[in-house]
Specification:
Two copies of one chain form a homodimer.
Chain A (H helix, E strand, L loop, with lengths): L4 E5 L15 E5 L4 H4 L5 E4 L6 H5 L9 E4 L10 H4 L4 E4 L5 H16 L2 H9 L15 E5 L3 H12 L3 E5 L13 H5 L4 E4 L13 H6 L5 E4 L8 H9 L5 E4 L19 E3 L10 H17 L19
Parallel strand pairs in A: 1-2, 1-3, 3-4, 4-5, 6-7, 6-8, 8-9, 9-10, 10-11
Helix pairs in contact in A: 4-6
Chain lengths: 315, 315
């Protein structure tokens, strides 16, 4: 096999591809240069986690890479109809973020149950004010998204004694289908969105669904921003339809400084970092190198995305 | 048996003793009236969780209650040599707070691992700043205190994948003795103080012990304030000997508004609330009523405090 060309859609810091040295010709590009580089690449590594550049550049003319690896769990920022209908194999970083995201959700759930944001406010005011808090064990959660992230979230919440239901695109063993969602929402203390962004999940958390939830319920989104109708969430918090929420992902990222979401009472805003524990970039690079070995050996790739559905189908 | 007199050292809200109605003569007192009431009480319920009034009033003359129930896990605020050497049985609220405190510790550990206080600061400043966080699974904790609270903390941290060592007053099955403490501290990511306050534990977290810990270590105290030399902790944080800390208990409570602890960078201050989940006062009252039934029937009480040691000896 001639030395393949690996094109990297860059982001800082660059991936460490140590073991590939000498085995590939590596070309780096930014979003602006992508269209020009694409035709001579055998493999595209989408290292930039947020750029829509692939979606924009792919439809252009000329040959296309046979394999695209997306170094994130979500693929919505990359997929386009032309890529979906092509022969190109798309893989993602499924597996790297599961446990970190699950811990992040547990951190948010516990922080809200224990009223930690208010404790930090009172500390700034040097004010000693005792409050009763909520027991997490024995409470009820619904996790929407039955992929590895959702399942890890459910496992971690269960380990804390939370009765947890998983909701996926269709009912199966230990997973509820969408038909159960409203009933589960109406009884949940915690609602966690951990689904991929697809045409079926876009905007699923809207005014009606926040209205179904209990006034004591709290909502967490670690999936993708557009799963949530942000204005509806802000209104639900403002009108006390629900008791609190935490968003780690947003329709527009970075969230603009003038977004009203920064200041919604009862809302915790964090900068899309739920999966990013120390060393995460090295884990992503190591996973790509591992997949490259399979690809170079002509073996089946792992984490192959169903390009119509927009995620890696699971068990 | 003549109707016994139950004396309650009051705090708001008063205990709900429903089932005892008609079976006891209930007298209520505040700290100032305690000495005058003590001689005619058969049973003393120390409902005030912070007052030192019993310690002050007990040595006076006249008969004394045969049973004192302290509605908290710690008994240090009540015990005095005269009570310790008397025939009076002392019981405590062991069991009510275990799971809530364990969850509170998990909340603090996860909040620190995920840099949540900084996230809330950045949110106030409407600033999007991604940071890498720490994975909790695979990290190491030392829990000092091998009673029910310490064991619940250890169980909960283990459920999150944290390798956890328990340290008690003497080595036994699954519990390290004090001789292992410094070695364990030197390798721990998380150090949790959940011990009773006794002459052996007072001031045990001093400058030397903070010096033994790793620069990346974080310290949590949910036991009693005087376990910690507070100035030494403030200095350890200031000099970056350790990376962070959270105190829920203090030498002086409420923590005075002018205490420097409110403003120590890297320190989370909360108002002695780790065990207090909704309904905790009713659980305490129900536990006392349950014990009263045993006492009235002449059966052995539970949670009997070893008055020399200052806690309920465990398995």
């Amino acid at each position: 096999m001639p030395t393949p060309t690996l094109l990297v859609l860059d982001a800082e810091p660059l991936p460490r591809l140590g073991r590939l040295t000498g085995r590939v010709r590596v070309e780096h590009t930014d979003a602006a240069g992508l269209a020009a580089h694409l035709p001579r690449a055998d493999v595209l590594l989408v290292w930039d986690l947020t750029s829509h550049a692939v979606r924009d550049a792919w439809p252009g003319g000329g040959p296309r890479p046979r394999w695209v690896h997306i170094a994130s769990a979500g693929v919505d920022h990359v997929m386009c109809p032309e890529l979906a209908s092509s022969d190109t194999v798309v893989t993602n970083a499924r597996g790297v973020f599961d446990q970190p995201v699950a811990e992040y959700v547990a951190a948010l759930v516990l922080a809200m149950a224990k009223d930690l944001p208010r404790t930090l406010e009172l500390q700034r005011a040097r004010t000693w004010r005792h409050r009763d808090t909520r027991k997490v064990a024995g409470s009820r959660a619904v996790v929407v998204g039955s992929g590895p992230v959702g399942r890890a979230v459910a496992r971690t919440l269960k380990a804390l004694g939370v009765t947890t239901a998983l909701v996926g695109r269709a009912a199966r063993a230990r997973v509820h289908g969408p038909e159960d969602l409203d009933r589960l929402l109406s009884r949940a203390d915690w609602v966690v969105a951990a689904a991929p962004l697809t045409e079926r999940t876009r905007g699923m958390f809207d005014a009606r669904r926040f209205g179904v939830m209990q006034p004591s319920a709290r909502f967490v989104n670690v999936g993708r921003g557009p799963l949530v109708v942000e204005e509806a969430l802000a209104e639900a918090l403002d009108k006390r339809w629900i008791a609190g929420a935490a968003l780690d992902v947003f329709a527009a990222e970075p969230l603009p400084g003038d977004s009203p979401l920064w200041g919604v009472p009862g809302l915790i805003v964090s900068p899309h970092m739920s999966g990013d524990t120390a060393g995460w970039r090295d884990e992503l690079a190591a996973q790509f190198v591992e997949f490259f070995d399979l690809w170079a050996a002509g073996e089946p790739l792992r984490n192959v995305v169903d390009k119509q559905r927009g995620y890696v189908p699971g068990p």
